[in-house]
Every structure is written in structure tokens, then in C-alpha cells.
Amino acid sequence: MIAVFKTNVSTDSELNEISPLLNSRFKEIKWNIDLWDSDKILRVDSPRDWTKEITELFNSIGLRCVNLEIFHSEPF
Q1: Could you tell me which of 51, 14, 56 has the C-alpha nearest to residue 33?
Q2: Could you tell me the superkingdom of the organism this chain comes from (predicted)?
């Protein structure tokens, strides 16, 4: 499953704040944030849907994260 989120992560400092949290709480996901994209897109590749938990994590540290789309596909 690939989930796509719009975020307000716009600086390296914010990215450095969220990175260890995502890595420690969601060990089985692969993720990236495109700081060059106007919507600061977060892409998450995971075998399960973590939409609610990821959104809550961002909100808990004062960042915004809105799910745009989920794609269901076989893992590579």
C-alpha cells in the first residue's frame, strides 16, 4: 500500500524533527517527504494502512498532514 499525504513540512529542521519519530514508531514503512513539491508530499510504502497514526503523529508535534490518496498494490 502506498499512501500520499500533503504536509506543511517545509524546513530541514522540521524534517529532522519528524524523521526519528516516523522511523522509530513505524519500523516497517518506507517513506519520503518531497520538500521541493509545493504540497510537501509525504509518500509512505507499507504493508498496512497507518493513515490515522501518521496523521496523529504529525498533529502531536504541531505539523499538518492530510491524506490525499491510498494505492493498494503488491509489494515490490
Answers
A1: 14
A2: Bacteria
Total domain count for the chain? 1
Q: In whole angstroms, what is the distance from residue 29 CA to residue 16 CA? A: 17
60's CB contacts (< 8 A; 6+ apart) are none
Q: How far apart are CA 21 and CA 1, in angstroms?
A: 20
Structure confidence by residue, pLDDT tens digits, 28-58: 999 999 999 999 999 999 999 999 999 999 9
Residue 12 lies in a domain: yes
| pTM for the structure as a whole | 0.88
